[in-house]
Every structure is written in structure tokens, then in C-alpha cells.
Amino acid sequence: MKIFLIILLVLLVLILLAGAVYLIIGYVTFNFALSRKGKLKKEIELKSKSSLSKQPEIENYFSNFEKLEVKSNEDLRLVGFYKNNNKDKLALLVHGYGGSHYDSYSYSKIFEERGYDILAIDLRAHGESEGDYLTMGLNEHYDILKWIERLLKLNRNYKIVLFGISMGASTVCMTIGETLPNNVICAIEDCGYDNANNQLKYVYSKTKFVKLFYKIFYNYTLKSKGIDLKKIDAVEKLKSSKIPVLFIHGNKDDFVPTAMVYKLYDAVSQSRRDIYIAKDATHTKSIDVNEKEYKRRIDKFLTKYCV
Q: Which of 1, 75, 241, 273 has the most neighbouring CB atoms within 10 Å?
């Protein structure tokens, strides 16, 4: 009887230790990937800030924008930067993972040159917006709906183009799968992923984390935050979309694999889609490798499908 109790106690201790290890690994891996202060996000954020420090014209450019705010469904304060050029068409610009509205600079200029008002937002857990963690497009795409409502209070005649980069691109794809006002007329996504689970598995595969750790991360994220990464699926959302989409991706993207763009593209009917694969472009660099062609493709798309 005494030996049985000892064995039972040892098993209980081992179970508790296993549970503690699971929680620690889950917490660490979640914070690595999705926390506002996570290591992966901070690395990208620092690169962005370093680039910004070398281009003071970017801060000067946005200093002329008006700061707007909306509340998310969870009552987070979300911040965007608006420029009223007294037009009836507007580009809503959505940055990527670890970025901010400053990353929308080059794209904002493209749309301004084409006669658009601009709203460049800070996603939740980024820039000046509130939030302790990001959700890879799950809650962010509902935030975009809030921004659309806000814009239509400013100008009910707006014709809105949604434009996103990287995680912002996938967020845009998910947004247009929802029921939208007729004011949203088309979307442009640049280097977005097809599914959050696929993307994060790919990112983790390039780190020292083993497959077991990813499974723990996935389950921890599901159980502790209610976020099912497998269901954050831009492809499935696009199947419900009704508006034209331009898909852009670099053929040398090593952060969001180029193969993902074809899954997104195939989800949209042939009559309202276009695609541009930028030669020699890595992640988010399609505009840099051939700016002239990048603008030409956008012009072609806007002329054909939008305004």
C-alpha cells in the first residue's frame, strides 16, 4: 500500500511538472509570436524604426495628417491617420506585422498622386493603437469594418479601396469576405498569407523551435486566448467576397512563401481578379524592385475595376 501511494505521488508530481512545462512553453511561444512586446515583432519593429530614422521625410509627410480614433469590439482604442484631399474616393491602408502607419508611406503617395483621400491605420497592438497582442487578422478584420463605418460618417459618398501589406494584406482579404457597404469597391493585397496557421508554422520552422513546441503554441493560443489559428483563413473568406482584388507578391519572398498567393488568387472568380508576381522581389519589396511596373499594375487594376 505504501509503495502504491509513493508511485501515485510520483505520477501526480510528474503530471504537475508536465502541466507546468506546457504552460511555460505555451506562454513563451505565444509571446514570441503574438505579444505586442514579442521578440519576433520587436525585431521587425526595430528594422522599421531604423529605416524610418534614415528617412525623416516620412514623419514630415504624416505630420500633415489628422489623427482619428475608433473603438474595437473589445473597446480597444484604435488610431488612424487621415488626409482629406477633398475627394470622393479614399484608400484605406493597412500595414503588416510589426509595422505602423509609417510603413504605408510609399503606398499613400501612390494613391494621393491618383487623387485619393488617405487613411493609414495602426493595427491593434501596433503603433499608437491599444492591444496587448495581435490576432493575425482574426480581430483585425473586424477593426477594418469599424474604420469603414467611421469613414462613411466623414463622407457617405466615399468610394473606398482597401490596400494591405503582409499581415495587413491577409486582413484585407478577410475583411472583404464580410458583408460590406457598396462604398467598398475593390481591394489590393501585397504579399499576404493564405492562413495564419500555415504562416506561423512556416515562421516557426525557421527558428530553433521544434514541431512539438508549435503544437503547444497552437493549443495554448486556442485555450488561453480563444484564437484558432487554423480558422484565420483568408482563402475561405475570399470565397465569399464580391469585389475585385489585385494580388501582388514577390517571386523570392522568403517570409510569406510565394505559393500562398496562388491559393488566394484561385479563391476569387476570374472576372474580378488580377495578379502581379514581381521578379526578384523579397517580402514587401515588390514596390522597390520595380516601382514603375508596380504603379502600372495598380493603375491598370484601378482603371479596369475601380475608380
A: 241
